[in-house]
Amino acid sequence: MNSITFDDFKKLDIRIGKIISAEKVKGTDKLMKMEVDIGAEKRQLMAGIAEFFEPVHLIGKEVPVLLNLEPRNIRGLESQGMILAVDVDGKPVLLHPEKEVPPGSVIR
User: Fold this and answer.
1) Distance of alpha carbon 30 from its chain centroid, rounded?
2) pLDDT for residue 65
3) Please, are residues 67 and 14 in contact by the beta-carbon 8 Å criterion?
4) CA nearest 35: which of 96, 4, 81?
């Protein structure tokens, strides 16, 4: 495993986002499109989690989001960040705060 410096870690803008809408992307098995409230704004995120979660079960969840990742077009849809999750045997497990926190709360 490669090490990074603490200064490298500080460059990451990771905040809690609250999923306010989610839908499977038509024509794909894996892609989920979500709108996430990160406090000062809302962002559209794409994630390859549609085969593991139903959209209705994601709405209202608080999740860590990497915000300063360069936007990426996936199937013609822009993803403006990345949800962070744990990979357990190839299946995502969502991370969440132990209690409700305001959208946009900074992870340090």
Assistant:
1) 15
2) 98
3) yes
4) 81
CA-based nearest residue to 104, from 35, 31, 16, 8: 16
pTM above 0.90, yes or no: yes
Residue carrying the six token digits 């305001």: 102
CA dist 25 → 11, 21, 76 (Å): 31, 13, 11
Residues 58-87 pLDDT 10s? 999 999 999 999 999 999 999 999 999 999
Which structure tokens are listed for 34? 């979500």
Burial class (CB in 10 A: 0-12, 13-18, 19+), 104: middle
Distance CA 70, CA 32 (A): 19
Q: What would you measure as the largest C-alpha separation in the chain, in angstroms?
A: 41
Average pLDDT over residues 4-14: 95
Residue 37 pairs in a beta bridge with: 18, 42
Give the integer Cα–Cα distance in Å for 23 and 2.
36
